[in-house]
Design a protein that fits this description.
This protein has 289 residues and is α+β, with helices and mostly antiparallel strands. It contains seven helices and 17 strands. The N terminus is likely disordered. InterPro entries: Phenazine_PhzF-like (IPR003719).
């Protein structure tokens, strides 16, 4: 039997419950509004055109804003539309669960249908998204050289156990593993040069990681194509990274944690689960700003 929570979600998704646009601000992958990655969530956005959504995203100034029309969700950075955004999906799911009850949701995005499960414990909503089918390929020598030059890194800075790849789980991310935590902490890159390389490659972020263990990774995500120097938590990149680890055979237990935003002063915690299903599961919380 359909639960009351699911019934409320169905009524909202059909357009019955909310008629006017409602602009919300959440920080995802944290329980502290001073941590995590801020995202805009615009409910009842069906009447907005592309230019209006881009203008609102730019005014909010977050790395992404989700625009929700029933079960249709679109994502805009301050500069352009993005096919899929993990932290804005988590923020949207938490916002909806807080208003209409927890349970399963399905979002129709430019990257395909994204299933999200929400639960509540001790008053805190947790959301788990399942990404589009993930895959990964080795980076070419030219791609690697161009990224390293823009980052001002050398090949000696890399961890040879984690080869550079281009990974996909809704959109593409260039995955690069630092050999030390110190190298990851010293991020001082050429914004214009890296943005140009990423634009030509069609990559959403460069996912820089350092492996503390097989189940714990630290990450930083430059995002110049969106007009953002760095993302504090990138659920889409975490999902792509899960697919990457599966491809290269470095999964460990199949469940791992990504710590992101630490070097920005906005710590974020992303939990990633990988199994033999095509999509990757990414779990986190979100809090109203």
């Amino acid at each position: 039997m359909e639960s009351m929570e699911n019934h409320r979600w169905t009524r909202w998704a059909s357009g019955v419950t909310i008629e006017d646009m409602d602009v919300l601000r959440y920080s995802a992958f944290t329980t502290d509004p001073h941590g995590g990655n801020p995202a805009g969530v615009v409910l009842g956005a069906g009447h907005l055109g592309d230019d209006e959504m881009l203008r609102i995203a730019a005014e909010l100034g977050y790395s992404e804003t989700a625009f929700v029309d029933g079960d249709r969700v679109r994502y805009f950075s301050p500069l352009a539309e993005v096919d899929f955004c993990g932290h804005a999906t988590i923020a949207t799911a938490v916002a909806l669960a807080e208003r209409f009850g927890a349970g399963p949701m399905r979002f129709h995005t430019n990257a395909g249908e994204i299933a999200v499960e929400t639960t509540v414990a001790d008053g805190q909503v947790t959301a788990t998204l399942t990404s589009a089918p993930a895959h990964s390929r080795p980076a070419t020598a030219t791609e690697l050289d161009e990224v390293l030059a823009a980052l001002r890194w050398d090949r000696a800075d890399l961890d040879p156990a984690f080869p550079p790849h281009v990974a996909f789980a809704g959109n593409e991310h260039f995955v690069l593993a630092a050999g030390t935590r110190e190298r990851l902490a010293k991020l001082d890159y050429d914004f214009e040069a890296l943005g140009d390389v990423m634009s030509r490659g069609g990559w959403t972020t460069v996912h820089l990681v350092w492996a503390e263990s097989a189940e714990l990774f630290h990450a930083r995500d430059p995002f110049p194509p969106g007009g953002v120097v760095e993302d504090a938590a990138t659920g889409a990149a975490a999902a792509a990274f899960g697919g990457y680890l599966r491809t290269i055979g470095k999964l460990g237990s199949g469940r791992f944690t990504v710590l992101q935003g630490e070097d920005m002063g906005r710590p974020s915690v992303l939990t990633v689960e990988v199994d033999d299903r095509p999509g990757i599961r990414v779990t986190g919380t979100a809090v109203r700003i």
